[in-house]
Design a protein that fits this description.
Elements: E1 10-13, E2 24-29, E3 40-45, E4 48-60, E5 84-95, E6 107-110, H1 113-119, H2 123-126, E7 133-141, E8 144-151, H3 152-155, E9 163-166, H4 174-188, E10 196-202, H5 219-227, E11 238-242, E12 264-266, H6 271-275, H7 289-302, E13 306-307, E14 317-318, H8 322-338, E15 344-345, E16 348-349, H9 350-366, E17 390-394, H10 400-420, E18 427-432, H11 435-438, H12 447-462, E19 464-470, H13 478-481, E20 486-489, H14 494-497, H15 507-514, E21 520-524, E22 532-535, H16 544-550, H17 559-570, H18 576-583, H19 588-601, H20 606-614
Parallel strand pairs: 9-19, 9-20, 10-17, 10-18, 11-12, 11-17, 18-19
Antiparallel strand pairs: 1-2, 1-6, 2-5, 3-4, 3-6, 4-5, 7-8, 13-14, 15-16, 20-21, 21-22
The structure holds adenosine-5'-triphosphate and magnesium ion.
Length: 641
């Protein structure tokens, strides 16, 4: 026997002062009804069913029954019997859709699973054969909770794309919500939509450093996972990339515990990789036709090519590294210095050459550890990205300039490969936490900001999707957050709620937003005509703080031991002592070069290969004197103010 239909919790009331309209209605409910701000309700009115979400409420009692009225002293503690409680609901959906009419005066029910599915129009994308629903959490009210799905076509493209989440630090659970959602996507992204990977930029401490490790969750979390049809487990396939510290051998990340070394590798770029994104490090004033022309010249004719110019030097240049490039620039300056009045080399003014040399040199210095001077890069696996795999690039310890470079190169590479359809996967979610730092509403128009705008405006056609988080949405460039088809809001503070971006929300919704507890979010999604409140379980991964406790970062090792540690990630059998003996007394540059050659080759006998690369023992460290660059003659600097 089917369970009896639950009794109504109230009834629509419509008066001349508070009439029902096609978009909102008032209803009266008993004081003990499980109705609150955000509750979803169903109104039955003959052939018409209307779904609404509660956005405001009010209560009153006839004069004389109020506890503040004359009878208050007589001990009228419970105003219940005399109280009238009215709720205002915004219409989510009417069935049938046409003709659109005013809300009927009928009984009001709390929404169950089927009602929530219809109210949020989830039937359109979950009920069909090739469904695209992705669970984001449960809608919970009055002891009921119903799964809420977002539409994959609107979260990851092509219809709409991108997700943004805002809320105060620590309470809004922004990073956790994205981790949970990525796991939900990996578990439920329909195969007919193709393959998907995530590229997460870890910008803050150990935040995303342990996505492959199980974290603690509660029984209630487990119940929510079950309700959503998801398995609470950490990410199965995660690859970590972190640049080196300036010493070139210790990784610049908090994920350095030996037990995690298996899927943690260095991110190292050479001159070629950097030169392609030289624009990142040039500021607005620098980017002129002259600078561009010189960079193009270097990229197309010099770096990675054999460049012959007998005027500069007899034997041709083979510029592969920053050191080679410096030698090349030096030859130009020597030539110009030697020539009386020589200020132009091959149409490039000496001031332009000097500027570009300084800017590129600046990258090498400020990004030491990310850029190498030995020409061997260790990059993300462009072309062989794998389905349901998370690639985490740890930039938390990098200088802001180097962070920009990483952003620029990674997003551009993703874009180019997705355009050519040769990345290895069809969709990539790029997760950028602390978005306000990279796409601030005010501030200089940087290359990275322009790139984030471009990603939000055009990425969805390519399958390039931006998930971003920040405390204050109002501090982020509108073109970036505004393009996020799906928006989540955790606990907000009052100042932020007073900004114009939230003016469409009722005061009651704002109050709820300001008091949300951990794990509760307000969700806006194209299919939902009103925002809805959802609750999501803790991500089943180890958090950053617990992570560094369980897997304490290895202390920075002295150079020889750090080299041994790097080699041991390739072959666990290698003894640290024998590497130390090999390395001690050698030039660090030679050792780094041998190390990266070994890393690149991945030989069967790691130690023998490394030993061969090092070659015979040479004398102690040779310190090369840096010759100063001759100063510009006064009055000839076209960039002078
Ligand atoms: N679903 C959940 N339910 C309850 N607590 C949660 C849930 N998800 C995360 N938390 C807890 O909330 C805390 C803060 O989470 P999180 O780090 O995601 O917040 P945040 O908004 O990213 O903060 P910040 O702005 O500082 O980066 C964590 O300690 C986490 O354990
Ligand atoms: Mg966070």
């Amino acid at each position: 026997m089917p369970a009896p239909a639950p009794a109504p919790v109230g009834r629509v009331v419509a008066t001349e002062l508070k009439p029902s309209t096609p978009h909102q209605f008032w209803f009266q409910a008993a004081t003990d009804a499980a109705i609150g701000i955000g509750a979803i309700v169903r109104v039955e009115g003959g052939a018409r069913t209307v779904y609404g979400v509660v956005t405001d409420g009010l209560a009153y009692a006839p004069a004389g029954t109020s506890p503040l009225g004359p009878r208050a002293e007589a001990g009228a503690r419970d105003a219940g019997p005399g109280e009238t409680r009215l709720w205002l609901a915004a219409v989510l959906r009417q069935v049938p859709d046409e003709p659109l009419q005013t809300v009927p005066i009928g009984p009001v029910h709390l929404a169950g699973d089927a009602d929530v599915r219809l109210a949020l129009r989830m039937d359109a994308f979950t009920a069909r054969e090739r469904g695209t629903g992705i669970p984001v959490g449960v809608y919970a009210a009055g002891g009921l909770d119903s799964p809420v799905y977002v539409d994959g076509d609107f979260l990851l493209g092509p219809e709409a794309a991108h997700l943004n989440i805002s809320g105060v630090s620590g309470l809004a659970t922004k990073t956790s919500a994205v981790e949970f959602l990525l796991s939900s996507i990996f578990q439920t992204f329909p195969t007919h939509k193709g393959t998907v990977a995530a590229l997460c930029l870890n910008v803050k401490g150990p935040d995303l450093c342990f996505l492959d490790q199980p974290g603690e969750i509660t029984d209630e979390d487990r119940r929510l996972y079950a309700r959503l049809g998801l398995v609470p487990e950490p990410f199965g396939d995660v690859r970590y990339y972190a640049p080196f510290k300036p010493d070139g051998v210790n990784l610049n990340t908090l994920r350095t515990n030996d037990r995690l070394a298996g899927n943690t590798g260095p991110l190292v770029w050479g001159l070629r990789e950097v030169l392609d994104y030289a624009e990142v490090v040039l500021n607005r004033d620098d980017v002129d036709a002259k600078a561009d022309a010189l960079i193009d010249f270097l990229a197309e004719r010099v770096v990675g090519h054999e460049f012959a110019d007998p005027q500069l030097r007899e034997q041709p240049f083979r510029v592969q590294t920053f050191a080679d490039l410096e030698e090349f620039f030096r030859a130009i300056f020597d030539l110009l210095e030697g020539r009386r009045g020589g200020e132009v080399w091959r149409t490039h003014h000496v001031a332009t050459i000097r500027k570009i040399r300084n800017r590129l040199g600046n990258i090498a210095t400020r990004s030491k550890g990310l850029v190498t001077d030995d020409g061997f890069a260790n990059d993300l696996p462009w072309g062989s990205f794998a389905d349901r795999t998370a690639y985490v690039v740890d930039v938390a310890g990098l200088d802001p300039l180097a962070q920009d470079l990483v952003f620029a190169r990674i997003v551009s590479q993703l874009r180019e490969h997705l355009e050519r359809r040769d990345l290895g996967v069809d969709h990539v979610v790029v997760f950028v936490d602390e978005l306000n730092k990279y796409a601030p509403a005010d501030g200089p128009d940087t290359y990275v900001r322009r790139m984030l705008v471009d990603l939000s405006e055009r990425g969805r056609y390519l399958g390039l999707v931006l998930f971003s988080a920040q405390q204050f949405r109002s501090q982020v460039l509108r073109r970036v957050v505004g393009n996020a088809g799906t928006a989540l809001f955790g606990r907000m503070d009052a100042d932020e709620l007073a900004t114009p971006g939230y003016s469409t929300l009722s005061p009651a919704i704002k109050t709820r937003l300001a008091t949300l507890s951990k794990g509760e979010l307000m969700l806006r999604h194209p299919h939902f005509t009103q925002p809805v409140f959802v609750r999501f379980p803790r991500p089943a991964v180890l958090g950053g703080r617990e992570g560094v406790e369980r897997f304490p970062p290895a202390t920075d090792l002295p150079f020889p031991d750090a080299v041994a540690r790097q080699l041991r990630t390739l072959d666990r059998r290698i003894a640290a002592d024998s590497i130390r003996d090999l390395v001690v007394g050698r030039r660090e540059d030679d050792v780094r070069r041998a190390l990266s050659a070994t890393r690149r080759e991945r030989p069967a006998d790691v130690e023998a290969y490394f030993r061969a690369c090092l070659g015979r023992r040479v004398g102690g460290e040779v310190i090369e004197a840096r010759r100063p660059v001759p100063a510009l003659r006064r009055g000839h600097d076209p960039y002078a103010p």
